[in-house]
């Protein structure tokens, strides 16, 4: 009985070993097959973004990118597109260069469509939209977007891109500010002026080299009011970044020809317990 038991035990061990080897071969075969899988296409071009939203006061061209989803090509890829939407060419935007065609240069992944917005600020806060749709590509071995029409929500994935242009208030936008104190002039760029009601505006980063304040470290805001007749009022205001006893006030004007804002500021400073000093200076803000 003992011999029979040993014989069965040895036989069972051989069967287990053969099964393990067989499974090992299958695993190796599957692994090699997976490792040998490489993407063979199809390669396609698409918009990098599906949506973008910008304010009409943005002065720099808005860049809409089209990219090649695949290896870089040694020859240029020419992509055609159509434009639709509620935004009006010549009134809300222009397309510098050749409209309707964007080229992905040789050995590059991206081509760019530039959209120059037109700031026709009229204190009517609405929005317009532009929809770019890819219509053709050369070489024709590429496809436009990825997936079937059902997958992309009405079109291939990445085949369309919608740019929303938000109306801005009359003085909204990005400015370069300049101030002169005595014989010295200080200038700061990328100053933002914004408003939610086109009546009261906020200037961010208005600290243009004014004495007595640590303007290298502090960037207080400043408020002014549009009076509706090209004149401005700077109401008396304090600021958490300044001393609690310091106040700002003044007047200003807007030039409709060049859109330059001029502010006549008056700052009352507490230099000691018994003495206040009033500092008067002029700042100008030029649209960038």
From TrEMBL:
Keywords: Membrane, Transmembrane, Transmembrane helix. The chain crosses the membrane at residues 12-28. The keyword Transmembrane applies. This is Uncharacterized protein. It comes from Spirosoma montaniterrae.
